[in-house]
Amino acid sequence: MAKFRRKTCIVLLLFILFIFSLMMGLKMLRPNKAAFGDPFGLDLLPEIRQHSHLVKTFDSQKSDKINSETNSKNLKSVEITMKPSKGSEPYPEERPPLNYYLHVFYYSWYGNPQFDGKYIHWNHPILKHWDLRITKKYPQGTHNPPDDIGSSFYPELGSYSSRDPSVIETHMKQMYSASIGVLALSWYPPDSNDENGDATDYLVPTILDKAHKYNLKVTFHIEPYKNRDDQNMYKNVKYIIDKYGNHPAFYRYKTKNGNALPMFYVYDSYITAPEKWANLLTSSGSQSIRNSPYDALFIALLVENKHRYEILRGGFDGIYTYFATNGFTYGSSYENWAKLKYFCDQFNLMFIPSVGPGYIDTSIRPWNTQNTRNRINGKYYETALNAALQAHPSVISITSFNEWHEGTQIEKAIPKRTRNTVYLDYRPHKPSLYLELTRKWSEKYSKERATYALDHQLPVS
User: What is the pLDDT along the chain (461 residues), one digit of tens a residue?
Assistant: First the structure.
């Protein structure tokens, strides 16, 4: 009996030692910084840790609504704003070279009280429908920043000012991280501005300086300023080249005959008669800019199919499609890009399709839901980029870096919830999702472009 007790004690002692050893081993495996009650390894995913307090406040139905990008209005709860993520940008040595065939449309029209004495553009008015009966069905008035802005998404930088040097610097860093080589700056003449903003030409020197710091180039996206015609276009092109043309960040595109020419995107070019453009853009025109110190590449916006021949008659050097809504116009429909490229090749024009991550402008046009395009967690953007690559374009343009009103931005956005609004966001991905996708496709485009014959022009990097 004593012998049996002794064996039992030995077995029990060995069992206790085994359990003790197992507990010590598990303690060693546990991450040192994991807080009590956190899921195992949560600190390995800092953004999940950062967001977990918000996720717990949502029931699964509301969370699904947010992640499927539907705007939930009139939710009565306290405001919750997600803090910017850190460390989401790759280290410089991990970044591929900038792709100067990849351009992104950039807007410098935002303002806030700290830098501008008032909010600009974030307080965008809700636009009326042309049918008064439809207008009456929707809210009226303007947005009320900083919590209520004219966008369905909310910027990581908040309701920022475009004149804030730190904001400009951050934007250049984000473009650099995405391997974008050129920003196409929305531009109005010094004494002009869009109907919802102030003059912005005075910001160009700072933008050029900050761009140069990151080896980015700046081209100009000429907006349809009041009374734009061939004569004042000549004066404005001359102004831009004289004032900014010697800056190292000023973008020039080398043609196959060796000329390095500036490039100008001309938004809504179709509203001016081709004959007027021909005065400026053909060598026989009365206001001709050709073969002069102010010669440049002028890229027209193609909306309808018929615009092809008007663009030719006007003397333009290429076409772009701008709109991020597939199917909205002939030009923005992916299915037409191969035909447009073929047309451009026939007439020695540049073809520049515009790709976007999605589209939603219902914060300023609540009646325009038919043109909303869901981002589908990045799939919409990648489909557009793939379609563009298939067309073997001269350049690819991105709509946009920061056109927040139309929800086409690739700039970082964060989750934000106020008493009345749940803003859309990029979850379950990081705020840098669209910069990372851009970097991936920039590298792919660069490699693929090198495999097909170079067209009539080469970029100056």
Answer: 555 456 665 666 666 666 655 454 433 333 333 332 222 222 222 232 233 332 223 333 333 333 334 443 333 333 334 444 443 444 444 556 899 999 999 999 999 999 999 999 999 999 999 998 999 889 899 999 999 999 999 999 999 999 999 999 999 999 999 999 999 999 999 999 999 999 999 999 999 999 999 999 999 999 999 999 999 999 999 999 999 999 999 999 987 778 899 999 999 999 999 999 999 999 999 999 999 999 999 999 999 999 999 999 999 999 999 999 999 999 999 999 999 999 999 999 999 999 999 999 999 999 999 999 999 999 999 999 999 999 999 899 999 999 999 999 999 999 999 998 999 999 999 999 999 999 999 999 999 988 875 544 455 55
Q: Cα Rg for the chain, rounded, in angstroms? A: 27
CATH number of 97-453: 3.20.20.80
Q: Residue 105 and residue 277: Cα distance in Å, rounded? A: 23
